[in-house]
Amino acid sequence: MEEGGVNVIDLTQADESFIKELKELGAEELKECIQCGKCASTCPMALAGLEFFIKRIIHAANLGLRDILLEDSSVWGCQSCNRCVEVCPMDVVPYEVIQAVRRAAIKVESCPANTYEGLRNLYKFGHAVFPKGFEERRKKVGLPEKPPTALSNEELLKKYREVLRQTILEEIAPFPLD
Length: 178
Ligand code: SF4
Ligand code: SF4
Description:
By secondary structure, this protein is an all-alpha fold. It is 49% helix and 0% strand. The model has no long low-confidence stretch (mean pLDDT 86).
């Protein structure tokens, strides 16, 4: 595999149990893919010429290439625009395949460090992006120390955490949900 993408497919690495796992994690229609390439033809990441290439990822998923996919940081490049979902003629829901690969990666803590950071922040503060020292910067420009979000409303934050605990986060979070 070249760095940053699923570029070479080594069939000796095929793992049927990974295909089953992806299905359980949301890629229910994975097997329906006919590799027509419509998803890639509309994906903004592929159109921008970035490493992320949805059709190839779906192919690798369909072959059960677990290690290759879990090591491929480009799966974190998906922008969740859902264009691929709209054009797929086989209702594969390619976006869900990406999500399933991400869930599988998180389960074995195989994802970029900033992804964990984002998850932790989301649970702890209600914001995935949580720059340190933001209170000071807000004060300097005359804003209240905390924004009017869950961050400044303990009751709301509690409810938000309750909702998150009912999602797959409970299963995959690599940190305690207390
Ligand atoms: S559009 Fe659907 S069927 Fe075509 S390659 Fe993408 S996922 Fe497969
Ligand atoms: S949802 Fe992700 S994979 Fe699908 S078109 Fe958008 S960026 Fe590409």
